[in-house]
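To the wet lab folks,

You asked to see what we're planning to order before we commit. Fair enough. Below is the target structure as tokens, and below that is the sequence we designed to fit it. If anything looks off to you, flag it before the synthesis order goes out.
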């Protein structure tokens, strides 16, 4: 009935228009032009003919079956939308996991580059323990977006000296000059000799460097008369 009611309305309107056209339609009674009149029987017959002609294309269609199919199609479209939304959610989750993993790998590569550069420089500059020098200085180096290494000052900003960016080699050199006990003595030289800090006399050591030593090295340093300074 939901389908047929609008149809009946349109047909009735069409019938009224039909009546306004003299001589139009099937079976209209003859008469002079402009003076055509219709009996109630004429109106009923014309309306029935129009309804029959308009509804013939829907013959054999069950309104209830049509409504069921329409509801099934609506439900199918809703499920497809839900599946699409779930798929997009999965894609977003996978992207987030990929970005996190990529970030971890970048951080790992950055740390390995920094550690490697510091160990190589410390070894090249005759440090007793390049690994300890690396542990003490790696917090002052970072990688840039371009992938190069950048030395930082005390405020975490790029460090400069005499208008030039401080290099990793400069950083290690300055550290070893301030902490001579980390430098191995050459033949006939003086200064610290291995973890025992051999060599006579007392020396000084920054507290940060002392804290980085192993318990055994700390004991040896104290036994050698090393003075801890802040």
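Sequence we intend to order:
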């Amino acid at each position: 009935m939901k389908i047929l009611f609008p149809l009946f309305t349109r047909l009735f309107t069409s019938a009224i228009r039909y009546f306004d056209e003299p001589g139009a339609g099937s079976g209209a009674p003859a008469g002079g032009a402009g003076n055509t009149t219709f009996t109630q029987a004429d109106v009923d017959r014309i309306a029935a003919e129009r309804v029959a002609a308009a509804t013939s294309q829907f013959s054999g269609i069950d309104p209830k079956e049509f409504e069921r199919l329409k509801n099934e199609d609506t439900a199918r479209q809703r499920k497809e939308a839900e599946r699409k939304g779930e798929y997009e959610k999965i894609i977003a989750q996978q992207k987030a996991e990929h970005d996190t993993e990529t970030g971890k790998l970048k951080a790992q590569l950055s740390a390995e580059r920094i550690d490697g550069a510091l160990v190589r420089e410390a070894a090249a500059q005759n440090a007793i323990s390049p690994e300890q020098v690396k542990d003490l200085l790696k917090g002052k180096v970072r990688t840039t977006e371009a992938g190069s290494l950048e030395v930082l000052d005390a405020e975490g900003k790029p460090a400069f000296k005499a208008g030039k960016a401080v290099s990793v080699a400069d950083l290690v050199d300055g550290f070893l000059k301030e902490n001579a006990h980390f430098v191995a003595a050459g033949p006939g030289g003086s200064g610290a000799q291995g973890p025992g800090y051999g060599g006579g006399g007392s020396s000084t050591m920054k507290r940060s460097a002392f804290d980085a030593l192993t318990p055994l090295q700390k004991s040896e340093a104290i036994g050698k008369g090393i003075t801890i300074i802040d």
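Structural context that might help your review: Strands lie at 141-143, 149-151, 160-161, 164-165, 203-206, 226-229. Residues 1-5, 22-28, 187-202 have pLDDT under 50 and may be disordered.

Thanks,
Computational group
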